[in-house]
Amino acid sequence: MKKIMRLILGKSLREGQSLFWEKLIRESRVEWNKALGRAREGPKILVATSTGKEGMAGPVESLLTAALTLRGANVHVLLCDRFLPACSIAQCTRVADFHEFGMKGSGGRQCQKCLKKGNALYEPLGVPIHYYSQLVSPTEIQQAEDSAKAVSTEQIPGYRWNGMAVGEHALAGALRFYAKGGLEGEPFAAQVLQRYFKAALLTAFALRNLLCNIHFDCAVFHHGIYIPQGIIGEMARREHVRVVNWVRAYRNRCFIFSHNDTYHHTMMTEPTNRWGDILWTPQVENQLLGYLKSRWQGTRDWVSFHENPQFDLQKISDEIGVDFSKPTVGMLTNVIWDAQLHYPANAFPGMIEWVMQTISYFSKRQDVQLLIRVHPAELTGIIPSRQLIVDEIKRAFPRLPQNVFIIPPESRVSTYAAMLQCDAVIIYGTKTGVELTSMGVPVIVAGEAWIRNKGITFDASSPEEYFHCLNRLPLRKRMKEPQIERARKYAYHFFFRRMIPLEFFESTESRNAYKITLRSMEELKPGMSSGLDIICDGILKGTDFIYPAERQNDKNGY
């Protein structure tokens, strides 16, 4: 019943938001037309939304279109008009016939709704809209079709076109479609991967042709990976167009923006001088610690994965079987299929291999317990995983070693309560490492976690380095005070400075959407919102996407 209600509410929300700009522009038509006129000679910005039905992208990118126009930018929009045979909107749970999708790709009512929603969002704004079908010639369509047939499924992941990792993004798109970390055993997986590969090539052709005809100063779009967003970024960088990617952040009404690449990459390589010299005061520290405590129940976040989490250690011990009086090492997994990109710093080829080798290692270390917390988003995420790490572990270890314990994704056990009892915690890519180090818990990083490269964690870039770190366990001590302060400075930077508030958005019952609460176009003008000013300046001028929260009163609780 709850799922049905979310779908109904999400549908009514999308319909309401489609009419939003039409109403707002009508109320300020004369002033808006003047802004459009002034913007014709301004810097050209491509808002490459592509998928109009994306519940998170549309509201934000249409608002940015309006705000940038008011700042004199000549904004263009890119939309797919039922052209791409596969995209990030397509999911196996929404496809009735895998064979038909593998043979024909996306289409039908789903694509029609997507295009209708995109047009309803952007047409009232009066900005130029480019459609994929208008950008690709019949010859190029045939070339993409021939390549998709000629390149084997084994070759696709490593396939590069004009130096761009087209195959990697195609594979990431297919894995997202199936919500799995691999395609083995999936019906029509080869055909589905070919659909994403063809879509990747068509996207590359469309963007190449668009960018050759119009020189854009910057391309702005959601996420920066999958299809078509990953290819848009690849082609824009190739054509020397600045790229800005963004995602919804954890905190309510906050977003993360990054230059040049997806935040999955840029957050790991961000220079430490961006945050290492933050003026650290008791007020700033209390602001951080108060928020971190709220994370235990998600009261100040967009999304909470569990209601009424269990904090009682005795009940946790009884449920899981772990004995916290003995040395215990925590282990936090990720959703297997999420953001399957290449990270050269990873100690292992993938998360599954990391999990299996770690369990095998601890099976020989009876002096230490291993407590594995499976990410709750496997079941409660926007796209529930169809490949569960618990099932993978059972296949590899029919009988779990006596000193290894698992908190399954459906468990109400508080991740924070359990991990704080551990001597150290091992992570692959979870952001929880940012929080745990702020609490003094030593963290070992084996994957692409954002806490890597900050001088805070033990970072392993090879199996040898990783197992050398494990050999030092248990540490039997917390992090030192200077290191904890450094961790807290980064956590503050991460949660309060990189997560930029946009007060124009509000949570809804639908987890993959939110609504705009803007009352007039006046609110989007320069000087009205410090968060929006920082974002627009970053897009127009290339300045850092850093919100100086330590200098703000934070009156609105952002």
Strand portion, in percent? 5-15%
Low-confidence stretches are: 1-15, 554-558
Counting helices, strands and paired strands, the structural category is alpha/beta
Q: How far apart lie the N and C ends?
A: 32 Å
Read across the widest sheet, the strand sequence of neighbours is: 3-2-1-4-5-6-13
Tell how many strands the DSSP assignment holds. Answer: 15
Mean of the pLDDT scores? 90
**How helical, in percent, are the residues?**
40-55%
Query: Number of DSSP helices?
Result: 22
Largest sheet geometry: 7 strands, mixed
**How would the global form be characterised?**
globular
What is the radius of gyration computed over CA atoms, rounded to a whole number of angstroms? 24 Å
Description:
- The chain is α/β, with parallel strands linked by helices and 558 residues long.
- Helix content is 43%, strand content 12%.
- It has 22 helices and 15 strands.
- Strands 3-2-1-4-5-6-13 form a seven-stranded mixed beta sheet, sandwiched between helices. The chain has a six-stranded parallel beta sheet with strand order 9-8-7-10-11-12, with helices on both faces. The chain has a two-stranded antiparallel ribbon with strand order 14-15.
- Strand 1 (44-50), helix 4 and strand 2 form a beta-alpha-beta unit.
- Helix 5 packs parallel to helix 10.
- Mean pLDDT is 90; it is low at 1-15 and 554-558.
